[in-house]
């Protein structure tokens, strides 16, 4: 079990005991993106020691938040994945990402970044109400790495899918430029002219990308500071 203990009979205190240890939320972030081998977790948790990772995983397994399992042949690799109880924390993680986004910039020198993390970031600002039924491709770049997603709108809101499928227009940009575009602080055309973005296929379709997110609306609702 976790060494963290708050001597209070409170559900929030119990939750904090399980996910409040250093690195634990980031382990859960990785597993929300899919099962991971131990080495994969270490690669994406730069600065965490193998010993500490074992300790945190063991505590999460004892709480039935994480389980060990094996991939089917031919992989035959042992991986860690969230249990059903573990996955139930996703709405809370989504709200933490939304809240933490206001503190994201400017980037801290030396911070690492994985384009795959964008999936959770985009999900946090995706609209949960009806939006236009469109599919827009999105390629998020970072250095030599990139990750592709399909942003799909419909009657139930916006869904973010890995990979680009059946998209007639695709935006390619680093994550900060993507946030500026979906937040409507920078237009697609201005980002292209500044060489911060590229569009392939339908420009008209890509221009509708902000309609699938609520970032611009949340900014308008934030009181201006004096």
UniProtKB/TrEMBL annotation:
GO terms for molecular function: DNA binding. Keywords: DNA-binding, Transcription, Transcription regulation. InterPro entries: HTH_HxlR, WH-like_DNA-bd_sf, WH_DNA-bd_sf. Residues 10-108 form the HTH hxlR-type domain. It holds the Pfam family HxlR. PANTHER family: TRANSCRIPTIONAL REGULATOR, MARR FAMILY (PTHR33204), TRANSCRIPTIONAL REGULATORY PROTEIN (PTHR33204:SF18). This is Helix-turn-helix transcriptional regulator.
């Amino acid at each position: 079990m976790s060494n963290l203990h708050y001597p209070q009979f409170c559900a929030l205190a119990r939750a904090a005991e399980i996910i409040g240890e250093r690195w634990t939320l980031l382990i859960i972030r990785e597993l929300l993106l899919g099962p991971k081998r131990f080495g994969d977790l270490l690669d994406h948790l730069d600065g965490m020691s193998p010993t500490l990772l074992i300790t945190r995983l063991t505590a999460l397994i004892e709480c039935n938040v994480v389980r060990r399992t094996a991939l089917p042949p031919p992989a035959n690799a042992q991986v860690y994945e969230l249990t059903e109880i573990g996955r139930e924390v996703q709405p809370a993680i989504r709200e933490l990402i939304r809240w933490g986004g206001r503190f994201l910039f400017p980037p801290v020198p030396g911070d690492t970044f994985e384009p795959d993390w964008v999936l959770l970031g985009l999900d946090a600002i995706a609209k949960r109400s009806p939006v236009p039924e469109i599919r827009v491709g999105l390629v998020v770049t970072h250095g030599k790495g990139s990750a592709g997603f399909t942003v799909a709108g419909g009657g139930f809101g916006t869904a973010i899918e890995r990979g680009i499928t059946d998209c007639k227009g695709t935006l390619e940009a680093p994550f900060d430029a993507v946030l500026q575009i979906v937040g409507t602080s920078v237009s697609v055309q201005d980002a292209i002219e500044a060489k911060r973005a590229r569009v392939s296929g339908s420009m008209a379709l890509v221009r509708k990308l902000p309609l699938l997110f609520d970032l611009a609306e949340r900014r308008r609702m934030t009181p201006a500071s004096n």
